[in-house]
Amino acid sequence: MKVNNKPTRTIWEKENRDVVVIDQRLLPFEFKTLDITTVEEMADVILDMVVRGAGLIGASAGYGMALATRQAITNENPLESLSKYGDLLKGTRPTAVNLAWAVDRQLENLKDVKKENLIDEAYKLARIIADEDEAFCRQIGQHGLEIIQKIYKKKNSKINILTHCNAGWLAFVDYGSATAPMYTAHDSGIPIHVWVDETRPRNQGASLTAWELGQHGVEHTVIPDNAGGHLMQHGMVDLVIVGADRVTRNGDAANKIGTYLKALSAVDNDVPFYVALPSSTIDWETSDGVKNIPIEQRSQDEVKYMRGICENKVSEVLILPESSPCANYGFDVTPARLITALITDRGVIKATENELLMHYPEQK
Q1: Is residue 245 annotated as part of the catalytic site, yes or no?
Q2: pTM summary value
Q3: Are 331 and 95 contacting, i.e. CB atoms less than 8 angstroms apart?
Q4: Which of 133, 174, 225, 245 is catalytic?
Q5: Residue 21: its pLDDT value, please?
């Protein structure tokens, strides 16, 4: 994707092997990058949502473990240290399965590597994880394009797509999951318009999705979170595409809080509801997402304060009585029965265990 017409990824490696990320907390008002030099710094940027989104969290964890080898190499037992560093990274964001997946993949890859080769091998795999994420999202775009093309052929007018939160290229290494079909359709000449939920409390839709769609020239409109049902009732939404932080083997999908309500509205109004995700987001060890996916509870301050520009200065504003307590659940789970299909890098798959296993026979 592009920032000010310059091709840009969300994470990359410098010549000295430090890692660079975009500070997404500052968007859309400022575009700045941060140099990450240690695994502790990487853990902090994941926890504080400098980087966020399932795919990017996974890539960041992969690079976090690479940074960890630079620190562990000085210890007598570097693999023991790497395991502890892996636990540090895993503890930052419990809902996104990509994080633990990337850490465990690094640990498995490094367990028989000679000490003098640990750093090179860890960075090699970190680059592979990041490149795979980009490739997966590009493939999601192609498979999702076929869905949009069918609707466009039938409607023969502008396609209105609703999305929730940010599952764009900022949430991955590039292209995004939910947005990949949108970018691919836009680039192929299909007229689309995207309804962008603001996505309280952190406003990822308003701050991130709207920003990146604008950078790419995609027509869009930001709406309050609870406007989606009204739009669907009045035929103003042709399909919904959202992302996911974890999808279980039976097809349940965890995504930003409020996604479940969009799915209910979509089903009630016969609007197709799709979840877009790379293969790395599937949790093959978990069934029944409502019962078994851990739901992150975040700081009350994310609910109490909103960030914006006032008098040409970016600031935070208290929006409720300071003494009022807040509950801040980060995610909810949409049951598979409400999902039209999953858009993956391996194709469009019905959200059932049998259908998933047909496309992923290695998981049987």
Answers
A1: yes
A2: 0.90
A3: yes
A4: 245
A5: 97
